[in-house]
Amino acid sequence: MLTFVVRVLNQIFLGAVRPTKFHHIRPGAIAFDVRFRLWPIDMDAFMHMNNASYIRIAELARWRILLDSGLHKKQFRNMLHLVVDHDVKYFYPIMPFQSYVVRTTLSSSEGKWLKYKHEFLSAKKGPTGEERVYCVVDSTCVLKKKGKTIRIDEMADVNPFYKNLLQDAPSS
């Protein structure tokens, strides 16, 4: 547990010193990349990334944008960012000490759901320029404050990050 807390704090720190580069990839969706390496703490007895570690690393990628999202500010205290669903598809193992990239796509319409698609990709492109996809973790999240669900369009009214996310998004 303590190790994970240190890793979360590291991602928040890295997000502060190296601001995340966001790309609008379609209306209502932005993407960003975070580079990782497979350390022994994430491996299983078969010497590759443990299946549960993919979900943990996906969470670390979401922590990277805490400062960018503004959810650390005083007016958003006591707000919960709850993951309500994960769908994980495994394709290839990530081997010990291998570097890889988690490309996270965050999308939403004006409804209550935030959708994250975490693609675990090879850090180096192949000879034809393709990236190998190791795993895809689809996560569905919701924002709650004092038991009430906060709609994304409500957040966009008070938070520039969510306003940018909803830019040109289709209405629900």
Produce the secondary structure layout.
Layout: H1 2-17, E1 23-26, E2 29-37, H2 51-64, H3 66-69, E3 79-90, E4 99-107, E5 113-122, E6 133-145, E7 148-150, H4 152-158, H5 160-166
Antiparallel strand pairs: 1-2, 2-4, 3-6, 4-5, 5-6, 6-7
Helix pairs in contact: 1-2, 4-5
Brief summary:
By secondary structure, the protein is an alpha+beta fold. 28% of the residues lie in helices and 35% in strands. Strands 1, 2, 3, 4, 5, 6 and 7 form a seven-stranded antiparallel β-sheet that branches.
The 3D shape can be described as globular
Distance between the termini: 39 Å
Uncertain residue ranges: none
**What does the largest sheet look like?**
7 strands, antiparallel
Q: Whole-number average pLDDT?
A: 87
By DSSP (H or I, 4+ residues per run), the number of helices equals 5
Count of distinct strands: 7
Rounded to the nearest angstrom, the radius of gyration is 16 Å
- Portion of residues in beta strands equals 25-35%
Give the H and E element order. Answer: HEEHHEEEEEHH
**Oligomerization state:** single chain
Based on helices, strands and strand pairing, what is the structural class?
alpha+beta
Helical fraction: 25-40%
Structure description:
By secondary structure, the chain is of the alpha+beta class. The chain contains 5 helices and 7 strands, in the order αββααβββββαα. It has helices spanning 2-17, 51-64, 66-69, 152-158, 160-166, and strands spanning 23-26, 29-37, 79-90, 99-107, 113-122, 133-145, 148-150. A hairpin with a 2-residue loop joins strand 6 (133-145) and strand 7 (148-150). It is globular, with a radius of gyration of 16 Å. The mean pLDDT is 87.
